[in-house]
Amino acid sequence: MLVLHGGAGTITRKSMTAEAEKQYREALEQALKTGQAILRKGGTSVDAVEASIRVLEDNPLFNAGKGAVFTHDGKNELDAAIMDGKTMKAGSVAGVTIIRNPISAARAVMEKSKHVMMIGRGAELFATKMGLEIVDPSYFWTERRWKALQQELLDEQKPQASLPAADDHHKYGTVGAVALDRDGNLAAGTSTGGITNKMYGRVGDAPIIGAGTYASNESVAVSATGAGEYFIRWTVAYDIAALVKYRGLSVQQAADEVINKKLKAVPGAEGGVIALDRQGNFAMPFNSEGMYRGWIGADGVPHVEIYKD
Ligand code: ASP
């Protein structure tokens, strides 16, 4: 079983053209099939999570890898994490600017260093030494995200009253995956450009283990998307795992409790998660207007959903 998200936010039927919707659906289906092909052949959940996220990182539709949003000063600073529920090993990178696939750098940190998290220049040096693909920062430039930044900068100058709804231009688009392999092992991964107009050096929840990404065979695998500052402070991914482990809630109950009760009560704490347990039960709750999401099971048929209903 593999479950994916492609970001939560202001995603409504009204705001989406038929052509755009088709593109998102195709991209998510492709990522689901890529991951499932690995699981079907007996590959690990870590392999499947990395491979499906790479597909979405390479697709400019999503706010991860190519297509990442811009910082206030016009750069792309990427964050990613991966966690192996069997070994409880984890790896993450933050604020990287030249690594084509940050999720693979996170995996390298997990498997080839003695650390969990590496940032900026050090993470980039390490990824280079590990033979990962390095690109010029301009690789991440896309017109759509550049325009979104320009719009945000304009909005910032307007009086408060005329500001659009908080995330009108964010549109989010972070990507994440959780998988369960044939041996019953869980894994989770998340990759993002963060939020449009973020300050230099700002790091979100995605690369923080326990906030945006978490996996343990003793509970669940979780990947989050949304307003990262809240997901960090509410330790969202681990909170869901803890509710499953210590309170015996189902994955659906636990994920709903955190997303649709706890966070819903907090102004600004918008977003969602995908969560999966070792029996293959999963949940995909979100408290925003929409969330790109999908799942694929042993029958190999991809399912994609975007809107609330
Ligand atoms: N959670 C991400 C961050 O705050 C953004 C997102 O998921 O849209 O960096």
What does this structure look like?
An eight-stranded mixed sheet has the order 4-3-2-6-5-1-11-12. It has a four-stranded antiparallel sheet with strand order 7-8-9-10. Helix content is 33%, strand content 23%. The longest helix has 23 residues, at 18-40. α1 runs antiparallel to α2 (45-57), α2 runs antiparallel to α3 and α7 (236-247) packs across α8 (251-262). Mean pLDDT is 95; it is low at 164-169. The radius of gyration is 18 Å and the shape is globular. It has 309 residues and is of the alpha+beta class. A hairpin with a 4-residue loop joins β7 (213-215) and β8. It contains eight helices and twelve strands. Bound molecules: aspartic acid.
Produce a short descriptive summary.
The chain is an alpha+beta fold. The chain has eight helices and twelve strands.
Q: What order do the helices and strands follow?
A: EHHEEHEHHEEEEHHHEEEE
Query: What structural class do helix, strand and pairing data support?
Result: alpha+beta
Summarize the amount of helix as a percent range. Answer: 25-40%
The first-to-last residue Cα distance is 23 Å
Tell me which ligands are bound. aspartic acid
Mean pLDDT: 95
What is the 3D form? globular
**Low-confidence regions:** 164-169
Number of helices: 8
Largest sheet: 8 strands, mixed
Beta-strand segment tally: 12
Radius of gyration: 18 Å
Give the spatial strand order of the biggest sheet: 4-3-2-6-5-1-11-12
The fraction of residues assigned to DSSP E strands is 15-25%
